Amino acid sequence: MMRAVGAALVILGSSGAGVAAFRAAAARVRTLSSYAAMLGVLRREIYPELATLEEALSAAVRADASPDFAGSVLCGIRSRGGADASGCWLEACSAAPQEIRGILAELAPLLGRCAAEEQSRALEKAELRIERLRDAAEDERRRSGRMYITFGICGGAAAVVMLL
Amino acid sequence: MDYFISRYLGACELLPSKLRLRALAVSEAMMAEAEEIRLRTGRAPAVASASGEHDLDGPPVTPDDILDTLTRAARGSLHTFAGELAAGFLTAAGGYRLGVCGRAAMSGGECVGLREFSSLDLRISKEVRSAADGISGEICSGGRVRSTLIVSPPGGGKTTLLRDLVRTVSDLGFRVSLVDERGEIAACSGGVPGFDVGMRTDVLSGAPKAWSALTLLRAMNPQVLALDEITDPADARVLLHASGCGTAVFATVHAASPEEAAARPALAGVIHIFEKAVLIERREDGRRASISDMPRRT
User: Fold this and answer.
1) Choice between B112 and B49, residue whose per-residue pLDDT is larger
2) In-domain check, residue B129
3) How far is B35 from chain A (nearest CA, A)?
């Protein structure tokens, strides 16, 4: 009886570890997708709509595209009366995932300070870079998902064989 | 706090912090008198008033100072104001107008943008609620409004007088449509006028004057159409159209006298619609507006 319970616990443990890793990989994909979507909203709002940064960020929040980041920049800009949008963007970057912090930070000196087309091009480039990272993360998630499932099943089966 | 000083302090809020501290160091008398804050790269910033320009102590203005001022005025979104900047100005919240110079980017013979900003003129617009007191009686009597041309040299206070005339006539019960191309007459923000332009005034901001005037005539059925600074023959033609519709017109023009204004080619075909001329003169004791019948060309 004790062996059976031990085998069940080993199976559950190894499956749980696999599921947790799988969920972390899925969360990473969602986060990257959300940032890419935010940049897409900003790009479309700034050009051709010529929306202000405040309006563009509000649109991103409404579209649920990385609302925490967009909301944080928006609050910063509003609290400073529209001044230092670059500084607000940079401050928000510090809370972004490490792997895209640099990509986002490169946009800080451009947003709101140069022609709309130029900003649009820079946003599109950053969006594509994040989408590539997201695609890689998605592949990684699939691969690791299969691997964790295989490990979980094999590990559990091995434990069952050894314990029973 | 004195209203004029508060307007100056509002203008200072648009400056980068280092320049703001220097601008705030001037006397209260100068703050109250100030009409403009001028930034020129490589030169000291200056506060301009009726008595001339007064340089502020400290290091010269840098190109970044001008860009930062513009960015603050644009609430961090210069691209949104690209059209206005290509025309050489930007109107910030509160009706502060920033005129800019720099290097023009040309396309197809037209200026499509300005860059490498070299000068900035931050105009401190002020609401003077009694400005039209001495002239409104003649313009508006017997239940009708007379078309009026306001004339003065640059910086004479035409916009201030027009704003108060619009407010007065509007509050007397006439429907006024106000063309506010540069947003400095009514200073609308979020659809709400920052200056009092009267109870029955409809404002169309940000669009070229001729288009705005025609739109207002079609859409708002105004009894009075008001617009600032007639320089283009297309604007003058619209005034003719308005007059033909039975709408009185208030307009302003840069000139030293009504006779000089009447001789302008751009106004030649339209001057006859104006019944009254208001001349603003700067004197040592301040500005003075005098009203007369519009002179006719012979």
Assistant:
1) B49
2) no
3) 23
Please check the confidence at residue B297 and state whether its pLDDT lies above 70.
no
B72 vs A83, B63, B206, B226, B281, CA distance in Å? 5, 14, 19, 30, 34
Residues of chain B found within 8 Å of residue A77, distances taken between Cβ atoms: 75-76
Q: How many domains does chain B have?
A: 2
Residue B69 sits in the same domain as residue B102: yes
Residue range of the domain that includes B64: 3-123
Q: Are residues B103 and B143 in the same domain?
A: no
Q: What are phi and psi of B207, to 5 degrees?
A: -110, 160
* Dihedral, CA of residue A39, residue A43, residue A49 and residue A54, to nearest 10: 40
Mark whether B43 and B162 lie in a shared domain.
no
Q: What is the CATH number of the domain that holds B71?
A: 3.30.450
Among the candidates B75, B98, B123, a domain finishes at B123
* Mean pLDDT over the full length of chain A: 88
Contacts of A91 (CB under 8 A, 6+ apart): A72, A76
Show residues of chain B in contact with A54, CB under 8 Å: 75-77
pLDDT given at position A164 = 66
Q: Are residues B193 and B95 in the same domain?
A: no
Q: Please name the member of A47, A112, A115 whose beta carbon is closest to the beta carbon of B71.
A: A112
User: Once rounded to an integer, what is the mean pLDDT over residues B106-117?
Assistant: 85
- Provide the shortest C-alpha distance from residue A116 to chain B (in Å): 5
Contact B74 A50 (CB under 8 A): no
| Whether residue B225 sits in one domain with residue B177 | yes
CA distance A124 to B59: 40
The interface predicted TM-score of the complex, written ipTM, equals 0.72
